[in-house]
Amino acid sequence: MPRRSLRARASRPAILLLLVGAAALARAQPAASAGVSVRFELNDAQVKGRTLEGVAIRVSPAAGGGEVASGRTGGDGRWSARLVPGAYQVSYRLDGYVPYTSEATEVREDGQLVTVSLSRLLEATESGGREVRIILNWGSRADQVRDADSHVACPCGAGQGHVYYQNRTHEAADHEVELDVDDTDWGGPETITLTRPVPGTYLYWVHDYSGPPATLGASDVVVRVVIGAEEAGEFRIFKGITKRAWRPFKAIEVGRDGRPTLVRFTEDEIAEADDLAVPADLQPPGPEPTPSPTPAPSSTAAGWTFPIFPFVLVAIVVLVLIAKARRRRRLG
Question: For the chain, where are the alpha helices, taking DSSP H only?
Answer without folding.
Answer: 3-33, 126-130, 267-271, 308-331
